[in-house]
Amino acid sequence: MNGPRRPLPSANEAVSLTVTEAAELLRAPVSAVRTLVRAKKIPSRRLGQEYRIHREALLAWLREGDRA
Questions:
Q1: 29, 31, 48 from 25: Cα distances, Å
Q2: How far apart are CA 21 and CA 17, in angstroms?
Q3: Does residue 34 belong to any structural domain of this protein?
Q4: Does the N terminus or the C terminus of the chain have fewer Cβ atoms within 10 A?
Q5: In contact, 18 and 24? CB cutoff 8 Å
Q6: Which residues are within 8 A (CB) of 25 and not within 5 positions of it... i.e. 6 or more apart?
Q7: 53 belongs to a structural domain
Q8: Which backbone phi and psi does 13 adopt, to 5 degrees?
Q9: In this structure, is residue 32 part of a structural domain?
């Protein structure tokens, strides 16, 4: 990622994240998150040509680890 980092989203911010927002939350490359989403390792929903990731589901996935 280039440029200054944005602060992590607070609990009252967006419930649905884009792949880019999820990558920022995880502090991971967007390409890595996109790969995990496409492989169905990270829970997500497809909305047209984009994916949306439920913030709480992402945090639960992170806490539990990748058990798939």
A1: 10, 14, 23
A2: 6
A3: yes
A4: C
A5: no
A6: 8, 9, 17, 55, 58
A7: yes
A8: -90, -170
A9: yes
| Number of domains present in the structure of the chain | 1
pTM across the whole model:
0.73
Amino acid at 67: R
Q: Does a structural domain hold residue 1? A: no
Query: Structural domain of residue 20, as residue ranges?
Result: 16-64
Q: If you search the block for the tokens 């502090």, which residue do you land on?
A: 27
User: What tokens were used for 57?
Assistant: 């589901």
The two tokens of residue 51 are 């994916």
User: What is the per-residue pLDDT across 11-67, written as a single tens digit (0 to 9) for each?
Assistant: 566 789 999 999 999 999 999 999 999 999 999 999 999 999 999 999 999 998 855
Check residue 65 and give its pLDDT: 81
At residue 10, the 3 state secondary structure works out as coil
How many angstroms separate the Cα of 36 from the Cα of each of 11, 25, 43? 24, 15, 9
